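sanity check this record:
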Amino acid sequence: MILRAHGIILVVAWLVCPAAGIFIARYLKFALGVWWFRLHVFFLFVGTGLLTIAGIVLIYLYKAPPHLENPHEILGFTVGIAMLLQIILGVVSDRLFDPKRTSTPIQDILHWWMGRIVVVLAIVNLFLGLNLYGQDYPLDKGYLIALGVVVGVIALAFVAGQFLIGQQPCTHRGRCPLALLASAHTPSRGRLQFTVGKVDAGVAILLSPDHHLIEFPANLLPDGVSTGSIVNVTVERNPEEEQRQRDEFATMQREIFEIYSQPPQPPAIEIKAVTQTSVIIKWQPLVLHSATFRGLDVFRNGQKLNLHINPLATSVKLSGLDVSHEYEIWVVLRTSAGNFTSNKLRVKTHSMDNLTGLNPSFGTFSNDAEIETLIELLARIGASYTDDLSTDNTHLVCTLPKGPKYEKALELNIPVVSPEFLKACEQQQKVMPAHTFYLSKQ
């Protein structure tokens, strides 16, 4: 019983399945579209491959080792190895398919001929198996008649296919190579004529006069087109659009290169203000290009100061300096593209008799006319003032301890002094200690 099952399975595996798979690939590509490739794989990989494995398992269950003792077993083993190589060749042919090819590549030719040789050897081995079976058991004529009928039907099918259909050119899973389209009948240069085979949702099957088949987007066909309609497809090259897209791409490349290839610019610092105990330096907004800001370090006489500077800041105040002392100051911009050092400045803080560093702002006065008198005083001693209060100011001058400026001065730790402070500075011709003129909130 096991031997009969072994024989029937391998007849189906190496007679019926290869015949069906080869017939589909040879004669039914255009009729089946993409399904020819799927059915070809099914019959020759799933059918022949898995059934062969099942037949081998049965014979191992029936007969204990040793094996490969007669021509049937040796040839069967050879066919099995050749089947694995044929499957690998099929995968290679599929993966290396080039739709622009104009000739049949070597891997396709090897795949075709190895398939034919393996099938012939398998059929020879079928008869060797029948002969081996007949030596031990009587052959049932019903099996022989059935085998003859199968062989006859297969032979008639291939003869009919060759004369009625003819071998169809190689396509990739139902899609026609460009070389086949180029060989299609064209009434004029650049025009291809097709007959509409069928129209599905989104895809139309077009047939050329030479029976080539292509899949075409249905939304590009004229209205009213249906099965049997004749359509002309015009194929033209557009050199102007090609050049436009090349130029657009080249421009985009240059812009990307200019943006991402430029390093950050080192900051250029300059003096904004100097007093007896502080220096304010400033710079233009940082230019980082595509780099990422990681920090801005301030150095004074070679010593890094513990200052946290916002990347959007354009100035910084160095406080707690010695009176009438010279300093060398520079900054280092740290980015993801590296560190960039600014120019170095040499600056000397003012002496006590230098009043030009005073830069007060005026707060709330009980008599606003007094402010004009103080502005004239500042002009006489060479000092300056600002309307708005910021860290750049040295003092807040007011007579009433209230208002937004007063609150902000307390927050920024700016001395709040009375107008007598400026008058004393002018009278003594030097910067007076601010603490004796503090204006405290009552």
Remarks:
- Residues 361-437 form a domain with the Rossmann fold fold (CATH 3.40.50.10190).
- The CA atoms of residues 389 and 408 lie 8 Å apart.
